[in-house]
Amino acid sequence: xxxxxxTEGIRRHSSGKPRVLVPTMxxxxxxxxxxxxxxxxLAGKEGQLVVSVFVNPTQFGDGExxxxxxxxxxxxxxxxxxxxxxxxxxxxxxxLYSEGEEAGIKADTRLTGTLCxxxxxxxxxxxxxxxxxxxxxxxxxxxxxxxKDYQQLAVIRQMTRDLKLPVRVIGAETIREEDGLAMxxxxxxxxxxxxxxxxxxxxxxxxxxxxNTPESAARIKTARNMITSEAPLGKISYLQIVDxxxxxxxxxVDRPAIAATAVHFGNARLIDNIEIAPANQPNAGG
Length: 286
Hints:
Blueprint: E1 2-4, H1 7-12, E2 19-24, H2 30-43, E3 48-53, H3 73-82, E4 87-89, H4 93-96, H5 116-119, H6 123-138, E5 142-146, H7 150-162, E6 168-172, H8 192-197, H9 200-210, H10 216-230, E7 235-243, E8 257-265, E9 268-276
Parallel strand pairs: 1-4, 2-3, 2-5, 3-4, 5-6
Antiparallel strand pairs: 7-8, 8-9
Helix pairs in contact: 6-7, 9-10
């Protein structure tokens, strides 16, 4: 595995082979391991797998955890090497951003009016900016993102279409702990008591997917009550049902949708979602 920490190096190591990119913010965990191994499978023997580790400042808002976000470069290198990474790209902020540079790529506002968008103004602009920079530097044929950040996936796909970037964006299924909690680098913020309550998020989302009532409000009410009663240490930021493609809120589950939530446990902001089928149709899981 080659480790590169500068933009000139990543350009020099372009081999002409098909490239698969797995962008991450580091603090890698078994969910990332599965994501990277999927990238290895997509790249095949002839392709090149690039994993980026970069904590992107432009996607953090005021009062968020940019400074305290976990950084584990040594552990990240070990995991990437074991999972079959060819190039690990670990640039500094100064390598990717000019002094004083802000988010330059604007996310499609049609996709950011629900879920995380209202809570995190400018967040998706920062995501689009850094992803466009990575695509430009690395020139991947395929980029792999986890479905746990479903709205992010939709925003990046739209940006890729709008800018006509020659990258195929693929979503990978959420990897979970045995009790259903979605794996996340921010799970390490949880106290033992908070961690014990956190699986209520996925349990509530499953209740939405298994409820065949057409009206979204009825499904959401039941799920909200479940989180409130089983995770009293959590503070619900949102719990919504939205169209999978447009991210628009649905009053009736009459098309493929996702149920998604964000819940604060102290300093930890956990997000999760589940895909749900239209009422009276089988669900595909999440």
